[in-house]
Amino acid sequence: MLIQENKIKIRILMKKRCPSYNLSRVFFTLLIMTVFSFGFNASGINSPYDLTVNLLQHTDQVFLSGYPVSTSLKNADKGTEQYEFVKIAQKNPFFGWKVSSDNKNTLQTAYSIIVASSEKKIAMNAGDMWTSKKVGSNKSLNVYYNGKPLKPGAIYFWKVKTWDNHGLESSYSPVSSFIMADSLIDYSTARYPIQKTDKIPEIINKLSDSLTFIDFGKDGFGRLRLTLSAQKEDTIVIRMGECIEEGRINRKPGGTIRYSSYSLTLRKGVNTYIVAIHPDKRNTGAMAVKIPSCIGQITPFRYVEIEGYLGKLNKNQIIRETVNYPFDDSASYFYSSDSVLNKIWNLCKYSMKATSFAGIFVDGDRERIPYEADALINQLGFYMTSGDYSMARYTCEYLIDNATWPTEWILQNALLAWNDYNYTGNKDFLKKNYTELKAKLMLPLENKEGFISTRTGKVTNNLLESVHLSGELKDIVDWPHTGMLGVGKEEPGETDGYVFKDINTVVNAFHYRALILMNRIADILGKTEDSSEFSSAALKIKKNFNNQLWNREDKVYNDGIGTTHASLHGNMFPLSFDMVPENRKEDVLNFIKSRGMACSVYGAQFLLESIYNTDGDQYGLDLMSSTSGRSWYNMIRAGSTITMESWDNKYKPNQDWNHAWGAAPANIIPRKLMGIEPLEPGFSKIRIKPQPGSLKSAEIKVPTLRGEVKASFKNIKGKSFSMKISVPVNSTAEVWLPVISSYRDVKEDGISANYRKDGNFVVIENVGSGEHELMINK
Q1: What is the gyration radius of the CA atoms in the chain, in angstroms?
Q2: Which of 48, 303, 334, 64 is nearest to 199 (CA)?
Q3: Minimal CA–CA distance to 57: which of 369, 299, 389?
Q4: How far, in Å, CA of 766 to CA of 738, rounded?
Q5: The pLDDT value given to residue 145
Q6: What is residue 39's three-state secondary structure?
Q7: What phi and psi, each to the nearest 5 degrees, are found at residue 609?
Q8: Beta-strand (E) ranges in 552-619?
Q9: How far apart are CA 77 and CA 1, in angstroms?
Q10: What predicted TM-score, i.e. pTM, was given to this entire model?
Q11: Given its phi and psi angles, is residue 271 left (phi above 0), alpha (psi -120 to 50 degrees) or beta?
Q12: In degrees, to the nearest 5, what angle opens at C-alpha 445 toward C-alphas 441 and 448?
């Protein structure tokens, strides 16, 4: 069918352009056929690409023991090997694709999908399962299957073509395939299998005839594979660790920084050995997420020592089978004029990849348990660095049924749910879990003024059951608390001396934020009565919060009702969650600045959000690029290549060196410093609002389900600010440029732009797809 369509188009073009010259006609025919053979339409609209099913792009990829293989889904489903692959369990899956065009300001106006039961039929454009025909719609995400019932265990093939606002029709996309699960249900989140990648050492040092030191360059979860030669049976010692001391692996690194030692008996001849990892009782216990048997036990390590082996070693003999959730390293990048900030970005981006080893967001290696607070920072960081949304959604679902003990963290379910919808534009998670999300508000804890409290006798067994919590519900504020975990008096935890009262400021700031987001969620789902109730409750608590917790004399928020102590936390959370009236924001921001980094690596997420939400860009930059003891650079200086659980061992003596909740810059740099966020769900409209501070230049690429967003700027302080952006097709952007004092003109693509003034920014609206250059001059 496609070939026939192309022949017709060729004939038409030949008649129009080459009526009399046979040689020209032949040449032109070959040219047009070449263009079509690459899937392009001469009109300038290209075929859709990066097709997704239930948020996953590579639904046809087959894995064996963690490694991608060449086997097709059809052969894998019938093979004798223990293959792993994506299985779609949702009865009516949803499709997505990226629209491509050579033209600027392009929006999709229609699409046509074909779904077939065989490769032969899809090649013939025979949609025996579903042919949508031409559907007038701009939807390129969350398009639900609407054909014959899909059968359990069956493989299906699909493709799509689109029309755009320039009146152009694309050719069909490449074919994608997917397999249904053995049992189908109304709603299910699909996930990739966990993947293995072989990593060879960066450095091999022979310290003596019988001792070799190996450095893989970065810490990573996995196991060791060695190919060694022996003249006779012999025994060697293998040491693995995350930390070194005086050029050797630190055998007593402290905390949960990993070190392990193994004896390996060598057989005569050349053999390949796997170092079988000893299971850890804590991270393989009842509450821990288990690693699939096809992957095997793993541990984090960067360094290896081999003692007793006399032969020569090269890099190809020493392999770390590194484990992580499939991660596209090329999906994002960031470079700036600040070399320290660049290192922080690389540290935090890599932390997203390295800590995905369980296929679900966990707290690190010590427990391997999902926590809401870890998941929130992981979720946003993973979105911004990898472009994957499936692992975050699966983690959200897990946490619905497996709550953890902190009050504020249970409230974070609303934040997680909203992010899932805002970044994907898909309502399925909200629809499925709405009742559970409503319960996570813990409304029975409210008093007549709208405050909630866990310390006034309202925590009942029914409440705990409704949020799926086994155990005691307690306020946390930050972690660790004063005096906990052996921190001692000189290092009083990470709460900035917070005074815990019955009515807790931080808890109720989270309560307000959860109400606001549940109001939006209820409205999206058409639950108007609930939406109104949530809105009224949010207004009530905001009013009473500002009346009763505001210290008028000191111009700060107190930690709670009944204390005049003010902490960083009691002020950064209300500012982050938009609870602070406009006339108080400057006072609150000044107080926040006076406290420095008086919070944990987890609290830093909300500290930075509060700063950037108040246009405090220079202070935000100062904190992220700091080289003090409480900084991300300090993690690098200490020798870690994955973010730590705490700023330093002295702040949490049992900390680990592989905790993604310490990687806030992975999302703060793209979302706040570079300012790329969805203004409408699924990035149909994008805000690009850079807050550069003193940065002279920066450039970034951020993945979205509609395509990559690129932005770069040059900042000549006080003189000009110029920006280049690339907006994905089927999206528009709202671009905010920092105001230059006494600015003379604002230009878009070399022409004077229409704009509005908003605070310290000029705003250019409705910037279409493609590449654009924007500038503000003095």
Answers
A1: 28
A2: 303
A3: 389
A4: 18
A5: 98
A6: coil
A7: -60, -45
A8: 556-557
A9: 30
A10: 0.93
A11: beta
A12: 110
Q: Which helix (H) or strand (E) holds 273?
A: strand 269-274
- Strand 83-85 relative to strand 62-64, pairing: antiparallel
Strand partners, 772: 725
136-149 pLDDT tens trace: 999 999 999 999 99
In SS3 terms, 82-94 reads as CEEECCEEECCCE
The identity of residue 49, as a single letter, is Y
Distance CA(688)–CA(672), nearest Å, equals: 9
3-state secondary structure of 120: helix
pLDDT score of 5: 41
Tokens 């109304």 belong to: 186
pLDDT for the residue 393: 98
Structure-token pair, residue 129: 């399962």
CA distance 167 to 467: 52
CB 340 within 8 A of CB 623: no
pLDDT of residue 40: 41
Tokens encoding 470: 């086994």
Main-chain dihedrals φ then ψ at residue 271, nearest 5 degrees: -140, 155
In 10 A of CB 81, how many CB atoms? 12
β-pair partners for 737:
762
Please state, in angstroms and rounded to a whole number, the distance separating the CA atoms of residues 519 and 651: 38
Give the pLDDT of residue 6: 44
Per the CB < 8 A criterion, the answer to whether 188 and 180 are in contact is no
State which residues of the chain have pLDDT below 50: 1-43, 483-491
Residue 336 to residue 711: CA distance in whole angstroms:
12
Tokens of 542: 């905001």
d(CA 252, CA 718): 53
Closest Cα to residue 609, out of 636, 634, 589? 589
* All residues at 6 or more sequence positions from 570 whose CB lies less than 8 Å from its CB, including other chains: 498, 505, 506, 549, 556, 557, 558, 559, 560
CB 707 within 8 A of CB 733: no
Angle at 85 between CA 396 and CA 156, to 5 degrees: 100
Measured CA angle at 228 (ends 224, 229), to 5 deg: 170
Phi, psi of 685 (to 5 degrees): -130, 135
Q: If residue 305 lies in a helix (H) or strand (E), which one and from where to where?
A: strand 299-307
Separation of first and last alpha carbons in the chain: 58
Q: How far apart are CA 684 and CA 731, in angstroms?
A: 5
- Angle subtended at Cα 567 by Cα 615 and Cα 347, rounded to the nearest 5 degrees: 60
Evaluate whether 332 touches 701 at the Cβ level (below 8 Å): yes
**Cβ 39 vs Cβ 171: under 8 Å:** yes
Q: Can you give the length of the chain in residues?
A: 778
Question: What single-letter DSSP state applies at residue 518?
Answer: H
The SS3 assignment for 217 reads strand
Domains of the chain: 39-185 (2.60.40.10), 195-324 (2.60.120.260), 329-673 (1.50.10.10), 682-777 (2.60.420.10)
Contacts of 661 (CB under 8 A, 6+ apart): 363, 371, 373, 374, 377, 378, 601, 602, 643, 645
CB atoms within 10 A of CB 747: 16
Give the separation between CA 675 and CA 331, rounded to whole angstroms.
Answer: 17
Strand pairing report for 248-249 and 244-245 = antiparallel
Cα separation, 310 vs 182, in Å, equals: 52
Cβ neighbourhood burial of 34 (10 Å; 0-12, 13-18, 19+): exposed
How many Å apart are CA 644 and CA 638, to the nearest integer?
10
Site of tokens 């967003």? 709
State the DSSP H helix or E strand holding residue 399, giving kind and residue range, or none if neither: helix 390-401
